[in-house]
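Give me the fold.
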Amino acid sequence: MKLAIITVTEKGVEKAFFIKEKIECDIFTISKFMREGTFLIENGLQNFFERIISKYDTFLFITATGIAVRTIAPFIKSKDKDPAILTMDEEGNFIISLLSGHLGGANEATKILSEITKSIPVISTASDVSGKIAVDTIAMKINGKLESLETAKKVTSLIVAGKEVNLKVPSNMENENPDGVIIISNRKNIEISKIIPQNIVVGIGCRKGKEKEKIIDAVKESLDKLNICEESIRLFSTVDVKKDEIGIIETAKFFDRELRIISCDEIKKIEDRFEKSEFVKKSIGISSVSAPSAFIASGRNGKFLVEKLKYDGITISIFEEETKRDEKR
């Protein structure tokens, strides 16, 4: 949780520092209540919030709820993109999960912060109130991505209504990932919601100056060959020698994923495990790029779906990480 606390009163600042003693966070306030360890809210709350919204995943407003609502209103997009928004009164009596309770983690953050501040947590999502679990909560807990928010909503409504809903997962989540599912039922309509684990690391190597369009096509073709969703990509990786390759940088941006840079020194320690190229060795000092980059970036838990695919000066490696419940990367 990357937490920002926003407050506009002296008591709010005091409460924010109490929280900061227990959990890492940044505190923002107006000039009147600035002190060491705080950051300034400039040019009004909405302009300020727009500047920092992408820097944190959780925001706690120690203000009136109305102030928080008016501040965030222009920037609300959808439940799979919005950050977690919480509000708390300056006395710390109540803490409210206001926005993005499940996928954004606001409900979980509310529980954590209520324990720290001894506040009463206010969580209004139907599944939590009824003591049941929502589909998007399951997705969050396994670091997965919902294929459809609409189907997730429909299936969650069935759960809340007390209908029978089966959760179908491989018997061993770490090692199996089925390509097909058989449903036996006499129901005319069955709501199905798919969660896509984001557990694919794509290693990329390429000749200097390779165009982004060709690298993007190579990634897509590799995934298609393996019947893997693009949404399952967690990150891309390459070697530090290639860190300024525009084609690789733009490919990561195209898929909206992190590009992790692995040093040559790290790769040298394990390069003997992978297919070698003397040409690559003479060019950059190591004999392989895409496979060891993917392996190291992954944390080394999992397996290669394909160690190396070659496309006219481009190499693609696809590593599938083990998927574990409640894993936080």
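The two ends are 11 Å apart (CA to CA).
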